[in-house]
Amino acid sequence: HVVHPARRMHHRHESASSASAMARMHTRVAETRAAQQERWIADGLQRGRLTLAEASAMERAQAALLRRQASLTRSGHETVAQALAVQHRQDLQDWSIRTGHPWA
Predict the structure, then answer these.
(1) DSSP readout, 13-72?
(2) What is the mean pLDDT of residues 77-104?
(3) Would you put residue 2 in left (φ > 0), alpha (ψ -120 to 50) or beta?
(4) Residue whose C-alpha is closest to residue 34's, from 78, 69, 83
């Protein structure tokens, strides 16, 4: 079965558009998680579970995660491995905030 060149381009565009939409969704998820983590950090500071130095380290880690996700989104192509790596680092950040042990 021969595919017309214009149809082939349409399929590539759909694939790129789909990948881009997925990357944008991952960015929204990362931003949502970061907002929750900010609330947890503020709560930890307020309750004395976190020191200012710990909170600062955690906030720097969050900023790095958001920059990484934004970079992946701008690139227009995010692999499954890259998406999972960002998710894993956010899971570590969740643990870090809850236990008061900065990991970054």
Answers:
(1) HHHHHHHHHHHHHHHHHHHHHHHHHHHHHHHHHHHTSS-HHHHHHHHHHHHHHHHHHHHH
(2) 85
(3) beta
(4) 69
Closest C-alpha to 93, from 66, 60, 67, 58:
58
Are the C-beta atoms of residues 83 and 24 closer than 8 Å to each other? no
CA distances 5 to 14, 15, 18, Å, are 14, 15, 20
List, for residues 23-67, the tens digit of each pLDDT value.
Answer: 788 888 888 998 999 999 999 999 999 999 999 999 998 899 889
Q: Name the average pLDDT for the chain.
A: 82
pTM tops 0.90, yes or no: no
